[in-house]
Structures are given as C-alpha cells and as structure tokens.
Amino acid sequence: MKMIAVRDEAPKINIGKNGLTENILNEIDRQLNEHEVVKIKFLRSMPLIDEIDIKDLGRKISSTLSAEIIDIRGKTITLYRKQRIYKR
C-alpha cells in the first residue's frame, strides 16, 4: 500500500548539475533507511542527461544500495528497500 501512495508524491531527491555523487548516494541510502521508498528525479541540468539510459542508471543505483526498482517514469525512478534500521 505504501508503494502505491508514493506514485502521487513529489520526488524526495533531485539530481541536477553535479550529477550522481557519493553524497547523493548517501542521501538515497538514508532516505531508504528512513522511509523504505524513495523517488529520485534526474533534472535536465544533469550532465549528459539526454545520453544516459535511465533504466541502466537505476539498475546501478539499486544494485549499489541493495534496493529494488519499483517504477520508472520518464526521468524519475522509485526505489524500495526493506528498512535495515528498525524504529522503536
């Protein structure tokens, strides 16, 4: 149910002119730990955005962070990972 609700939400992370950096990967990891689901949007200002295959980039991010791709729409990917840190 949580994954369906995410479809209408705005992306939590926007990747722009600095591209996909280590800090961005750390933030995606943190968001996945906290929320399990995160939407990532690749902005037009990202270097080489028109030459990059978003599906391939999504696969690389998901394999790096041990997450699953649950949706790709245009230049937006939605990732899911079961929480590693349990809230009390």
Structure description:
The longest helix has 14 residues, at 22-35. This protein starts with a helix and ends in an 8-residue tail after the last strand. It is of the alpha+beta class and 88 residues long. The chain has one domain: Translation Initiation Factor IF3, CATH 3.30.110.60. Helix content is 34%, strand content 23%.
In short:
By secondary structure, the protein is an alpha+beta fold.
**What's the CATH superfamily, by name?**
YhbY-like
What is the count of structural domains?
A: 1
Strand count, sense and closure of the main sheet? 4 strands, mixed
| Cα distance spanning the termini | 21 Å
Average pLDDT rating: 88
Shape: globular
Structural class: alpha+beta
Keywords:
4 strands, Translation Initiation Factor IF3, 4-stranded mixed sheet, alpha+beta, globular, about 90 residues
Write the layout of secondary structure elements.
Elements: H1 2-6, E1 13-15, H2 22-35, E2 37-42, H3 54-64, E3 68-73, E4 76-80
Parallel strand pairs: 1-2
Antiparallel strand pairs: 2-4, 3-4
